[in-house]
Specification:
Rossmann fold; Sig_transdc_resp-reg_receiver; DNA-binding; WH-like_DNA-bd_sf; 6 helices; Response regulatory domain-containing protein; phosphorelay response regulator activity
């Protein structure tokens, strides 16, 4: 990541990404990582201004630790972050309502302006992934891995077909989408209707 160090600490399936920023902080790197990963993110930085911390946290960092720090402090922060994100009362979102669109992740029902929309399981999984990441561009590879599995990560032709089907069912004009937007050469983005 352009002159920055990135490391992942893994123990029994738990992982946290840390970004070490040696000079001036740049929220761009933090945002790039948080757009493509749900792994908790800790920024380790020498700079210590309120503005620096605010930028990194707004960009997607979960924690911000100022250098120098002790390994004991870092380990304690990692453990606390894992507790907050992976258990101890954490409940997955079961219902999302965004504008005119409502998705029930438990029953796999989708409603648009109060009317039920029938989706196949694959269509539902693809839409769910896009809605959970509202406003973010999700790459073709990311969507393929999440919806079809890692063995299909390079088979981008599937996505076009299913995005077209979703647009036909959810957009007022599938040729001029307002919710399911294409980011040419990158992937797709969901925007609230």
């Amino acid at each position: 990541i352009s002159g920055k160090e990135e490391s992942t600490i893994t123990k029994s399936g738990d992982s946290v990404s840390t970004i070490s920023i040696p000079f001036s902080p740049s929220a761009t790197e933090t945002m790039a990582i948080s757009e493509f990963s749900d792994v908790p993110l800790i920024v380790l930085c020498e700079a210590d201004t309120d503005m620096d911390r605010a930028k990194e946290l707004e960009a997607g960092a979960d924690e911000y630790i100022i250098k120098p720090f002790s390994p004991i402090e870092l380990l304690a922060q990692i453990r606390a972050l894992l507790r907050r994100t992976q258990g101890l009362g954490f409940k997955p979102v079961r219902l999302v309502s965004t504008g005119e669109l409502t998705i029930n992740f438990t029953t796999h029902e989708v409603f648009l302006s109060g009317r039920r929309v029938k989706l196949t399981p694959v269509e539902h999984n693809l839409l769910s992934e896009l809605v959970r990441n509202e406003g973010r561009v999700l790459t073709h590879r990311f969507l393929m891995e999440k919806v079809w599995g890692s063995e299909y990560a390079d088979e981008f032709s599937f996505i076009k077909k299913y995005i077209y089907r979703l647009r036909s069912k959810l957009e007022s004009d599938a040729s001029k989408p307002q919710m399911l937007l294409t980011e040419r050469g990158i992937g797709y983005r969901f925007i609230k209707p």
